[in-house]
Design a protein that fits this description.
By secondary structure, this protein is mainly alpha-helical. The protein has helices at 2-13, 37-53, 66-69, 76-92, 110-119, 124-128, 131-136, 149-152, 154-163, 177-194, 241-249, 267-279, 288-295, 300-325, 329-358; strands at 24-29, 59-64, 101-104, 169-172, 205-208. It has two domains: 2-214 and 328-358, HUPs (Rossmann fold, 3-Layer(aba) Sandwich), CATH 3.40.50; 238-325, Tyrosyl-Transfer RNA Synthetase. The protein binds adenosine-5'-triphosphate. Residues 29-30, 32, 38-39, 42-43, 172-173, 175-176, 212-214, 223-227 line the site of adenosine-5'-triphosphate (ATP).
Length: 361
């Protein structure tokens, strides 16, 4: 898997003389709690690899999307704390604010401004078919007063996030692929109406990591997520070795004897194999099925011990660095100020072009 990412980074950095397109990587994470192993393997780890292995001419922009976070109600003090912790986490995983632009979305108003403009283009029919909207509202009665417009138009803000920076590449987990397709559609539609033969908005390419969907430990049919009510369903990047062990130990498996890789029939066991595979860079095996074959014959207890050890080795350095950073207010403030300045320049450049194209200026 690491290989694949290195290739992505290399192809991103390859100078292609026939195209003068400047590579721009953009991605975001909601500051709705400490990131979990799914966020890390599915998205954040790629952000760092892209930072460390891309050509220096590649622009890297990573956002803490706090405007997205309020599409579901968050207690204000809690949100403030999460914003700070999430910023510290991005530094702890190895993002360098000198190389990567790291900022809170709400500090760059061009995101919300472009969103409005794109909302005047976006089809409500298309938005209504988004699976995430359906998932997050599945408990609500249709047409309920409780359904918020912000949650419905979430993908439009997400499109604005990406398009306002002219992103060419967007590294995300699989759950975001549909939203990215929507962003491309919005860009195409905008260019068709206002582009005047020129490309005003860039259609971004999605980069999906091979750990595209890490599943919940307690409910392996669902993806691991920050908002799942059961805290034992996810491993946080700040969990101690003991917490990791305890969560893996209680992870739901099945009553079938032996180990095999079959995500449909054996989602729990396969998720553990996946986690082991991705935390050990493949463990020297060609794929998860080969790793599972090697594990077959070991007791479930032994397998779980191996998984815990692998997760702990991945997370220990991150956890230690996080503990150093979280109380360093100066470092956090500087990183965030610097990020806002750089992101403002990048976003305003696109917004000016868009306003010109549609006749606002
Ligand atoms: P929430 O539960 O609050 O919606 P989340 O855990 O889904 O949060 P996001 O902030 O929406 O996380 O997503 C951040 C990034 O992590 C996105 O690129 C998303 O695709 C990726 N991601 C989230 N969950 C997983 C997962 N279980 N496996 C792989 N990637 C994931």
């Amino acid at each position: 898997e690491h290989h694949g990412l290195q290739q992505q980074a290399r192809s991103l950095s390859q100078h292609n003389p026939s195209s003068s397109i400047h590579k721009v990587v953009f991605s975001g994470i909601q500051p709705t709690g400490i990131a979990h192993l799914g966020n890390y393997l599915g998205a954040l780890r790629q952000w760092v690899t892209l930072q460390n292995e891309s050509d220096p001419s590649t622009t890297l922009i990573y956002s803490l999307v706090d405007l997205h976070a309020i599409t579901l109600r968050q207690p204000p003090a809690q949100l403030r704390q999460w914003k700070r912790e999430s910023l510290a986490m991005l530094l702890a995983i190895g993002l360098d604010p000198k190389r990567s632009t790291i900022f809170h979305q709400s500090t760059v108003p061009a995101h919300a401004e472009l969103m409005w403009i794109l909302s005047c283009q976006a089809s409500t029919g298309y938005l209504g078919r988004m699976t995430q909207w359906k998932d997050k509202t599945s408990g609500e009665k249709e047409g309920s007063e409780k359904l918020k417009l912000g949650l419905f138009s979430y993908p439009v803000l997400q499109a604005a996030d990406v398009l306002v920076h002219g992103a060419t590449h967007v590294p995300v987990g699989e759950d975001q692929a549909q939203h990215l397709e929507f962003a491309r559609e919005v860009a195409r539609g905008f260019n068709h109406v206002y582009g005047d033969g020129r490309v005003a908005l860039v259609e971004p390419e999605t980069i999906i990591s091979s750990a595209k969907r890490v599943m919940s430990l307690t409910d392996p049919e669902a993806k691991m997520s920050k908002s799942h009510p059961n805290p034992k369903s996810r491993i946080l990047l700040t969990d101690s070795a003991e917490e990791i062990r305890s969560k893996i130990n209680t992870a739901v498996t099945d009553s079938i004897t032996g180990v095999s890789y079959d995500p449909v029939q054996r989602p729990g066991v396969s998720n553990l194999v996946d986690i082991l595979y991705h935390c050990t860079q493949g463990a020297g095996f060609e794929d998860q099925a080969a790793l599972a074959k090697d594990l077959d014959g070991s007791s479930l207890r032994a397998v779980k011990r191996r998984v815990s050890d692998a997760v702990e080795s991945q997370l220990r350095p991150i956890r230690e660095r996080y503990q150093e950073i979280i109380n360093n207010a100066q470092l956090l403030d500087d990183a965030s100020t610097q990020g806002t300045q750089k992101a403002t320049i990048s976003a305003n450049a696109t917004l000016a072009k868009v306003k010109q194209a549609i006749g606002l200026t």
